[in-house]
Amino acid sequence: MILRMSANSSLLERSLSAVWHPCTQMKRHETLPLVPIARGEGVWLYDLDGKRYLDTVSSWWVNLFGHCNPRTNAAVADQLGKLEHVMLAGFTHEPVVQLSERLRALAPSGLGHCFYGSDGASATEIALKMSAHYWRNTGRPQKTEFISLQNSYHGETLGALSVTDVALFRDAYGALIRQNATVPCPDWRNAEAGVSPEDYALRCATALEAHLQEHHDNIAAFIVEPLIQGAAGMAMYHPVYLSKARELCDRFDVHLIADEIAVGMGRTGTLFACEQAPRPHTKHRQERGISPDFLLLSKGITGGYLPLSVVMTTEDIYRAFYADETARGFLHSHSYTGNPLACRAALATLDIFAEDDVLNVNRTKAAFFNRIAQPLRDHPKVKNFRNTGMVWAFEVDTPHADFAQRCFSLGLQHELLLRPMGNTVYFMPPYVIREDEMQFLVTHTLKVIDRLI
Ligand SMILES: *Cc1c(COP(=O)(O)O)cnc(C)c1O
Fold first, then answer.
1. Res. 2: pLDDT tops 50
2. In which order are the strands placed within the sheet that holds 113-117?
3. Which of 224, 299, 309, 391 for mutating ligand 1's site (highest number of atoms within 8 Å of CB)?
């Protein structure tokens, strides 16, 4: 025990001395210990002392089928014995071709071309550059501006920050970031009493229309997080907004970029969130669902195993780059573009979706969770309890300005990895979570909240 304790604390010290941790004020770790994780299995993470934590946030929203999933492990191990990596310029390989074909078959119609990046932010960069470059190649070089929703989050590189509206991430870098316009977000928490989420979404779409009407000549694209604005605090909105956005972008010749980095891969209940948009009356005619001009995927696409992102786009956009001149091509690359190991993890993820009928099973799990979460929903200090697919969130009425920090620390004591955003607590668990684990999550969260209010 003493030996293990010292191994534990020495790892913490070494980490604080050598590793600059992300999204962290490092000085906080003078009082708040890091959690040294030794291994993971299913929804559980285990620290060096063998203490366990239920990963309620899927390790920053990436894990889908549990830690150390045997099927994903086997796929990656198999690929390791064949080819770990080859550059994707001038070369190709089976995993990247298969993944592109399968994504094309699964995605909303018309998205036949896959361009790969290494992480979410790079997917945003790719889509913004590709959109502006498309307009340049098609004779409208003045279309270089972008619009996003208020409280939007699309990543933290400089280009992605220019369409991100989270002050904490932006303010220090204001001088480095291009200013782009934002339009009202359809988050139903902002609706006045008596206004339905649908009516509120429609009203926000009117504001988008007014903005496009005035500025469309200079706008390349509108980028949006479909159905849930994650980093805004799991803000949820009515899918009719997406139908309206599609219609307006068509009318004003503006690309629609669907950033499904967090919400894609089944998180909202359908494989892609865009599928839930109700019948639009546009050229993209389908029973339900819209096709964006760009669909961005990352996070869950490898099941949470390896960094990979993909930007899917249309034949029209692809064709605008297809020419004899080099400079008309899309000259963008990352060293690890289309990494075979990551592609195999993504293929294993798609296999599991098919073999385990994941979307249907998740529907049953979500219904179960909503039933057993009733005490949370009814809790006098809990507000705006909400659910979309496999995401739950609520605000806690608390006197503590440092609620998020306290909740995190107290969560660990109750075997939960909770990572609230402000006073918003959310659950975004791996899909493999079992009924007893869901019950554990509710019971222990109630204990944490009751100790904090
Ligand atoms: C996480 C996220 C990103 C950025 O992805 P990274 O891999 O962290 O760069 C972009 N958009 C959305 C909606 C996200 O949730």
1. no
2. 113-117, 309-313, 294-297, 255-259, 219-224, 145-149, 181-183
3. 299
Tell me, using a 6 A CB cutoff, whether residue 121 lines ligand 1. yes
Burial of 7 (0-12, 13-18, 19+ CB in 10 A): middle
Whose alpha carbon is nearest atom 15 of ligand 1? Answer: 262
Contact 426, 57 (CB under 8 A): yes
Two tokens, residue 274: 């865009």
Average pLDDT over residues 268-288: 80
Strands 255-259 and 219-224: parallel
Q: Is the CB of 259 under 6 A from ligand 1?
A: yes
**What sign for the dihedral angle of Cα 51, 394, 204, 280?**
positive
**Domain with residues 35-68+358-452, CATH architecture:** Alpha-Beta Complex (3.90)
Give mean pLDDT, residues 20-40: 93
Domain spans of the chain, in order of start? 35-68+358-452, 73-355
Question: 19 CA distance to ligand 1 centroid (A)?
Answer: 22
Determine what percent of the chain is predicted with pLDDT higher than 90: 92
**Topology (CATH level 3) of domain 73-355:** Aspartate Aminotransferase; domain 2 (3.40.640)
Give the separation between CA 377 and CA 394, rounded to whole angstroms.
Answer: 8
Q: What are the pLDDT digits (tens) for 399-451?
A: 999 999 999 999 999 999 999 999 999 999 999 999 999 999 999 999 999 99
**For 40-93, what is each residue's pLDDT tens digit?**
999 999 999 999 999 999 999 999 999 999 999 999 999 999 999 999 999 999
Q: Is 262 in the pocket of ligand 1 (CB under 6 A)?
A: yes
- Residue 4, pLDDT > 60, answer no
